[in-house]
Every structure is written in structure tokens, then in C-alpha cells.
Amino acid sequence: MKNQNDLLIKFKYLTENFGNKKFNDYLLTEETLLSVDEWLYPELINILLPLLDTTCKPKEKEYSLLLIKNIVNESKFICKHNLIKLIPAVSDLFWDTKEIIRITAKEVLFLLLECSENNDLIPFLNVVMNTFENPETTPEAIDKLASCVFVQNVECAAITIIEPILIRGLK
To answer: What is the pTM of this model?
Structure first.
């Protein structure tokens, strides 16, 4: 237990230095992430979320996106229960000034959309993704999503995916 807390403290320290040009060790941070037990991933996500803010430095955003990508690849289940926080933060980076951040945000968002584990939404993930990339396609996306018949229980993760589209459509 103590070792895991030490790793969490180390991870937080390393992420706080992403914007520091003199001390910036992404590989060590990634190694630390992979050493942490899965049950601590929600804490790691909470550490990374503020670094996805549009006002953060480019390296902070880029490295945080890459680390979230690692977390998604390690545990879709934990990400599923954090989609409500992750999707808005990642989708806000679609219009970042740095191309690497835009590209990485799109990759990470698509992985996050797959975490919902709702089989009824799978055929619509490309429509949802396209709507995040091109907001002017919102009316067409709403029409397509209206044809979705949910056989599976609709959980928070599924609603989190379609919520931004519905809100944009209501505006």
C-alpha cells in the first residue's frame, strides 16, 4: 500500500513538471503510471485532468493525452466510469493551436468512445466522432442517433457520449 502511495506522489510530482523545460521526463512518468495498480487509475485521471485545460502549456496537454491513452489501453472499465470527466476535457482540445495535440486528442477521444461498451452505440461512433470534429453536422447526427434502438441498458457512459451532441443540437 505504501509503495502505491509513493508511486502516486511520484506521478503527481512528475506531471507537475511537464511544463518545465529543464525537468521534463515523460518516459519516467509513463513507467510510473504502468507501475501503479489499476485501482489507483481514477486518482491518476484526476491528476491529469487539470493538465488538459486549454490554458495549459502544449507539453502538459500532449503528455497528459498520451498518459490517458495508456490508461484507456490498460483499463477500459475504469475509463468507462470516468467518461463524464474525460470526454469534455479531451474534446475541448480538438481546436488546439498545436497539430500534435489536435491529432492526439482525436485518437484518445475515439478510444474513450469505445469504452462505453454499449453495443447499440458502436455503429454510431463514427457519426459521434464526426460531430465532435465538425459541429455543423450536428443535425444529421441527431437524426442518425434518433434511429438508434437501445436494446442494452443505457448507462451513464452511453449518455455521456451522446450528451454533447444533444446539447449542441438544442442550442
So the answer is: 0.86
